Amino acid sequence: MATLTRFTRLFNFATSTCVRRISPASVYKQYYPALRLWDMSVAHYRKYNLRWFPKPTRLEDIIPEDDEAKEKEAAVVIDEINKQITTQSTGRLFAVIHLCGVQFKITENDIIIVNGHWVPKPGDKLKLEKVLLVGSTDFTLIGTPILNRELVSVDATVIQKTLSHTITRFRFRPRKQFRRINFFRIHRTMLRINTITINGDVDKKNEVEGLDRIY
Questions:
Q1: 158 - beta bridge partners?
Q2: Residues 6 or more apart from 98 whose CB is under 8 A from it?
Q3: What is the pTM of this model?
Q4: Residues 6+ apart with CB under 8 A from 78
Q5: Strand runs (DSSP E) across the chain, as ranges?
């Protein structure tokens, strides 16, 4: 009986190999469904465009509008801003800066606290270059995403490096006899904002501005 089963297996193997070599692919694939897996196409996501949603516009299709009235109005506004900057009549400026992963809204003589370990030491003078926004009572300059570091300068001084108050971390799991309590303190750096100034005209662009720094 064992020899008979071995003979049938050998006969099936021989016939299958002969059919695979002689007959076309469409014939032997119907007898061996596992071979159809090689011809399966990769599934893709279907894109459904709903009627109540507008079609997204590509950047290549956006055409800038040439409106003379808007251009004249913008020129008048820019001239007024430049006049206030030259005559130093902007008033008290405020700014939004990005520092150590956190955004701060600052004005002159403000004190901000940076949490975590930071390299600068007390007495060091810094120039904060990642300025997102600068404004006064009459105008606001918004960056994309940051303003040119040659246009706006924010100067600060490190006045103190301390530790925070003692923070308690308590962990408890009910009915597991698990209780943990930890105490720790965080490094803190205190900065004083000295000045926020706008250097030059708003619409003036230098030929080599920003080439020595890549954000």
A1: 191
A2: 130, 132, 146
A3: 0.64
A4: 202, 203
A5: 94-99, 102-107, 111-115, 125-128, 131-135, 140-142, 152-163, 167-173, 178-184, 187-198
